[in-house]
Design brief:
alpha/beta, 2 domains, 9-stranded mixed β-sheet, 18 helices, 30% helix, binds 5'-O-[(S)-ethoxy(hydroxy)phosphoryl]adenosine
Length: 572
């Protein structure tokens, strides 16, 4: 029995009667009128009489705390928007956010949207090369960053002719800034109380989120302001956000969860959000929940597994009775984690499934609906989902058969294209279905069960890393002749990166070289992309046309059948 009444009273009823118009009506949005996410998350909430309600409770690495009301947020996002206009950023320009989870990141995101810019959030953990690829592709005009990340931007600035401004949010004047660099202090800047928000329409581009695929460099999934409709209503029905909630989304806005639900879904519902800008530690997390009396928590399986590992003793040292609804996304949530969380917190984690491309939750276990531990749940009202045959792409009618998850296009938050890459975008659609690229089956009750990805993308701790990007970085190492990168099973992170490397003649297969190569990738790309394991091989399995067959290497790592290798050139 739930101790509360969920926002979505009955899943079956809602699924039958739902229309996105319900969300439009609640948001007072009329077809063809102005819709600006930045405005919806700030000004509108103030107009609803919640100006003095807390919007953000922020805690830093050393326990320092900052609090902002919706009115503070309205004014600060105005201030950022006006500043961007002043320095010559135009509507439609891409503005990157390359910062830790500081308040400037959250308000910068909304400020960019308010002046009509396209927000491009990137993980601050990225190295110069990861950054370069994405800024180059987007033709980014400005980047917000912090002093500590500035050197990584400086490394590449000369290769980025489109980049006009590097905005440093915490410059203290101790070292001179260089050409293109400007200091901007959000808290000290002259506050802009009134700002004329850019009159964006439903299809005006809003956010550009880079995501990894099997082939080629990462692709920018381009979203529009209309995504708000899905993000608002899914946050309300799946995360069950209510006015009195204190909500915590643990995701970094460099990842779509951190923007769709760490910014847009939460604040368009007028939620008070907490942000912890510190790494993972069970003790710190529980203290944070206890201190701020968090009620709704959106996290990820790797974090939950890490909490499980620490055991219930540390849970019991804290008063976590404020918690009422737990949700998870990013990787398969194992049944054990759901069962453990019931034991540890008295509440099960509810799995949700979606992608950068879908922009909002598409499958979920809903509050008030029976959870099947290990299942991703059922389609969100307004979403038509099925599994299609891997070859014919026709829906599989029979229950329990594995196919590819497919969605009927048309929900508001669906991405509108891949930036500069319409060809790849078009390939995602077959027979009138959007293909998610994940394999799953549907049971007799309509619940979806995840099986695996249908491509070579590696999901490490919920983050997708593309083998191609890592292989390209590896090739830049002087000792590497060729390489193949695959995911290897890992009890904590689900998968970790493993690289198979053939060395150039004259290089010895030493432990030293292995570590050097690992570090090389970490610096260039990020810690997540760094191979946790390197295996030196004499040659890599290739097709007759010379394409490296990662599938063969991957199957070996997972102990799976290799499948059809008739095109294989050499035997491993
Ligand atoms: C995987 C994250 C199993 C899946 C919001 C998907 C999941 C990819 C789940 C998208 C889940 C996400 N169970 N796998 N509940 N949620 N995934 O674009 O492979 O970073 O296609 O968006 O993560 O990752 P992305």
């Amino acid at each position: 029995m739930l101790k509360y009444q969920p926002n979505m009273k009955s899943y079956e009823e809602e699924y039958k009667n739902f229309s996105w118009q319900i969300a439009c009506n609640e948001l007072e949005y009329k077809d063809g009128s102005i819709i600006n996410i930045g405005e919806y998350c700030t000004d509108r909430i103030c107009r609803m009489g919640k100006a003095s309600k807390l919007a953000l409770i922020w805690e830093g690495f050393n326990g320092e705390e900052k609090k902002y009301t919706f009115d503070d947020m309205r004014v600060l996002t105005n201030t950022i928007a006006a500043f961007l206009q002043k320095v010559g950023i135009n509507p439609g320009d891409r503005v990157c956010l390359f910062m830790d989870k500081v308040p400037e990141l959250y308000f910068g995101f909304l400020g960019i949207l308010k002046m009509g810019g396209i927000a491009q959030p990137l993980f601050s953990a990225f190295g110069s090369e990861s950054l370069l690829t994405r800024l180059e592709d987007a033709g980014t005009a400005a980047i917000f960053t912090q002093k500590k990340h500035l050197p990584k931007v400086r490394n590449i600035v000369e290769q980025l002719p489109s980049l006009k401004h590097i905005i440093v949010v915490d410059d203290d004047g101790s070292k001179p800034l260089r050409e293109k660099e400007i200091a901007f202090h959000m808290d000290k800047a002259e506050r802009v109380n009134e700002f004329k928000v850019y009159p964006s329409k439903a299809e005006t581009p809003s956010v550009l989120h880079y995501t990894s695929g099997t082939t080629g460099q990462p692709k920018g999934a381009q979203h529009v302001h209309y995504s708000l409709i899905s993000q608002y209503i899914t946050a309300k029905y799946v995360l069950d956000i209510k006015d009195e909630d204190i909500y915590w989304c643990t995701a970094d806005p460099g990842w779509v969860t951190g923007t769709s639900y760490g910014i847009i879904g939460a604040w368009s519902n007028a939620a008070t959000q907490c942000v912890l800008d510190a790494g993972f530690k069970a003790e710190t997390w529980y203290k944070f929940i206890e201190k701020h009396k968090i009620t709704v928590w959106y996290s990820a399986p790797t974090a939950i597994r890490a909490l499980m590992k620490e055991g219930t003793e540390v849970v019991n040292k804290h008063n976590l009775s404020s918690l009422r609804h737990l949700t998870s996304v990013g990787e398969p949530l194992n049944a054990e984690a759901v069962i453990w969380s019931k034991e540890a917190f008295g509440l099960p984690f509810h799995d949700t499934y979606w992608q950068t491309e879908t922009g909002s939750i598409v499958l979920s276990n809903y509050p008030g609906m029976k959870i099947k531990p290990g299942s991703m749940g059922k389609p969100f009202p307004g979403i038509t989902a099925t599994v299609v045959d891997l070859k014919t792409h026709l829906p599989i009618e029979k229950k329990g058969i594995v196919g590819m998850i497919a969605l009927k296009p048309g929900w508001p938050a669906m991405f509108r294209t891949y930036w500069n890459n319409k060809e790849t975008y078009d390939k995602k659609f077959q027979n009138g279905w959007y293909l998610c690229g994940d394999r799953a089956s549907i049971d007799e009750d309509g619940y979806f069960w995840f099986v695996g990805r249908d491509d070579d993308v590696i999901n490490t701790a919920g983050h997708l890393v593309g083998p191609f990007e890592i292989e390209s970085a590896l090739l830049e190492h002087p000792a590497v002749a060729e390489s193949a990168v695959v995911g290897k099973p890992d009890p904590m992170n689900m998968e970790v990166v493993k690289a198979f490397i053939a060395l150039k003649p004259g290089n010895e297969k030493t432990k030293m070289l292995e570590l050097e190569i690992m570090n090389f990738v970490r610096k260039k790309l990020s810690a997540l992309a760094m191979p946790q394991e390197i295996e030196f091989v004499d040659s890599l399995p290739k097709t007759r046309s010379g394409k490296i067959m990662r599938r063969v290497l991957r199957a070996k790592e997972w102990g799976e059948e290799i499948g059809d290798i008739s095109t294989l050139e050499n035997d491993m």
